[in-house]
Amino acid sequence: MSISYQIGNVEADRRSIDKAAARFEHLINDLRRTEAALMENIGAEEHHTRRHDPSDPHYSMLARSMRSRLDNLRATIAKLEAERQGLAIAA
Fold first, then answer.
1. How many CB atoms are closer than 10 A to CB 71?
2. Residue 85 region, left (φ>0) first, then alpha (ψ -120 to 50), else beta?
3. How many helices (H) and strands (E) are present in the chain, helices listed first?
4. Measured between alpha carbons, how far is residue 90 from residues 6, 13, 18, 46, 83 in Å?
5. pLDDT digit string (tens) for 35-66?
6. How far apart are CA 1 and CA 19, in angstroms?
7. Taking the model in full, what pTM does it have?
8. Residue 85, domain extent
9. What are phi and psi of 52, to 5 degrees?
10. How many domains does the chain have?
């Protein structure tokens, strides 16, 4: 195998990793915007119901549901960021 062939493969791999990292970055940014929107909606619901403590038995079911979605979303973002870090190390 020639050196130029090996270098070409390394460069192709690096471009592929760079593209994947860019896709991860775009997805993470989209999810961050969704996170901000959910936080805003939770705040609006809490303001509307005048209940801000999730442990309150009268806390809004809608806000509780959105909080659960927010927790799941944050876990997904954390996993994607870890994957992105792995790509950065590989590049």
1. 10
2. alpha
3. 2, 0
4. 17, 10, 10, 44, 11
5. 999 999 999 999 999 999 999 999 999 999 99
6. 26
7. 0.78
8. 3-90
9. -115, -5
10. 1
